[in-house]
Amino acid sequence: MHAHRNTRSTAGKLPACRLLLGAILLSSTLTTAAGAQTERTIPITEAVHTERAFELRLIDALRDFVPHVLRAQGTPGLNLALGYKGRLIWEAGFGYADVASTRPMTPETVYHSGSLGKTYTATAVMQLVGRGVLSLDDPINDHLPFEVHNPLGARDITVHDLLTHRSGISTGGAGGVWHKPVPLAQALKESFDSTTSPVGGGVAPFWVAPVGERYNYSNPGLATLGLIVETANPEELSFAEYVQKHVMDPLGMESSQYPPAQRRDYVRPEIWEQMSTGYARMGGALIPTIPLYFSHYPAGGVLAKPADHLRLLMAMLASGSYNDYQVLQPETVEQMLTPQHEELGPGLDLGLVWLLRDHGQPTMSFSHAGGHMFGWRTDGWGWPDLDVSLMVASNQWSLPDSAADVSLIPPFIENWMLWTGPDFDVSPTSEDWTWKVSYVRGVVYAAMFRMYVGVPGEMPQAELDRALESTRVLEGARDDWDVEAFRQGVADIRRAGFGYAAVTGFWASELCKVTEEEATRILQELGGRFPGVASVLFPAATAGAEED
User: Fold this and answer.
1) What is the pairing mode between strands 87-98 and 293-294?
2) What's the DSSP call for residue 536?
3) Mind listing the pLDDT tens digit for each residue in 206-249?
4) Taking every pair of C-alpha atoms in the chain, what is the biggest distance, in angstroms?
5) Which helix (H) or strand (E) holds 38?
6) 243-247: long-range contacts (C-beta < 8 A, 24 or more apart)?
């Protein structure tokens, strides 16, 4: 059964859009690890914040795609928020926030961020850098209540080293404990006093490389930055208080908190009540996550709903500004999204905390993933050139290896944006415009066989006639088909000829029944991109002008 949208509104009515209507059940089958077929229903609760056709097409595509991801990955629940051109356009919850009680996942459901929380730590650090309180070149010992020295390297560790995971500190385990954690400074001091990491049964070394030698993702390193925020900020706020006051609250993140521990006595009641149950899925068994606390909590302890984190992503896309609040200065954002060292891999770089893909290309993105063991996975993405932002979270961390659920959605969006027609509002239907649209279709259809495929000679008329007899308008699409206008377009381009000069000059010739501007607009309405395949039909100067 197709999922139809529950509610729709424009961006100017966001508070009203937070009314979440009844869930829609989608039925399908899920193959379990044992090979048995079981019927599974997936509730969907959503709020649509746009009326624009282009944005609704993307939402429709995701609404159809995401349930397949949940079924294929055995995911109990997933929620997400999607932004476009600086606005929240869609938020949705799929599946269950709690399986035993069948409580549905909704846009309001709160996730456990895991390492996604590092983006808030980096934001807080860079705020203090922008205000002159810190410098990226500062030795961290200038701001710590105890001394830290890498025994494998001669120089001091700097703030920049920690932001780029080049301090030489091991990955660590974020100071995971079963009980209420000790204060941050005490927990980090105990870790730095040890020569081994708790990961791997306590035999892995705590220091793995000289300072600055190579990238090594480090939870203790990022947690140390949180302690620096705590000790350096002039207001003498705790790290949690600083992030709440200077990042979350002014961005309007009403369902977000960065508590020292994800325990009831540390978390605001309205957030605690919205939290999902995390699951360690092992084959077909969904085992609820036992409460785990991170004493190195600035490495990843945010509680939030997806639409809240989207605000930070949209601020990064808008030179640091969102909701009339300049969370970071434009030059700071540019620095954070600039590669800091050599490539991590093909097309992969590291900025200041953010992972960068395809830097300098139209597909450039910044992102950060996270996971709270063993129950939640998160991923936040921004595409500057596409002006798209995404936050997606699921309430599973499967064992023995994690599922790919949250990581399947960002590339789907990226490819949809790249290969779908341009963001262009279609003109209202009129008899005159219908004729012109079909005329341009005829010109393009005939010309592209020669210009794009290189097929010589005339199209067989009988085959063209048969094709036109069977032409139908797609259900739900604008009714803009005029077969005689199409035939006229084919005839006129035939008279002009199919050489490069004849085709590219056709739109400005006396033979053409539409203006060049009308032809360009119609091609955009039909899904043509500039630059793109349609550019071959126009002079290079025209295509370049459209690109600009």
Assistant:
1) unpaired
2) G
3) 999 999 999 999 999 999 999 999 999 999 999 999 999 999 99
4) 86
5) strand 37-48
6) 243/120, 243/121, 243/123, 243/124, 246/124, 246/127, 246/327, 247/120, 247/123, 247/124, 247/127, 247/312, 247/327
Which listed CATH number (1.10.260.40, 3.20.20.100, 3.40.710.10, 3.90.110.10) goes with 11-121+242-419?
Answer: 3.40.710.10
Three-state secondary structure readout of 123-171: HHHHHHHHCCCCCCCCEHHHCCCCCCCCCCCCCCCEHHHHHCCCCCECC
Two tokens, residue 194: 């040890």
Euclidean distance between CA atoms 309 and 188, whole angstroms: 27
Token pair recorded at residue 484: 């005689």
Question: What digits encode the pLDDT tens for the residues 460-506?
Answer: 999 999 999 999 999 888 899 999 999 999 999 999 999 999 999 99
pTM summary value: 0.86
Q: Which residues of 91-128 are buried (b: 16+ CB within 10 A; e: fewer)?
A: bbbbbbbbeeeeebbbbbbbbbbbbbbbbbbbbbbbbb
pLDDT tens-place string over residues 16-25: 333 333 333 3
Which of 157-161, 190-194, 318-322 is the least confident region?
A: 190-194
| Cβ pair 404, 397 in contact under 8 A | no
Domain ranges of the chain: 11-121+242-419, 134-232, 431-547
> Tell me, what amino acid is at 234?
P
The whole-number average pLDDT for the span 184-212 is 91
Q: Are 294 and 168 in contact (CB under 8 A)?
A: no
Alpha helices in 298-430 (DSSP H): 306-317, 330-336, 405-419
Q: Is the pLDDT of residue 189 over 80?
A: yes
By residue count, the chain amounts to 548
> What is the phi/psi pair of residue 386, to 5°?
-85, -15
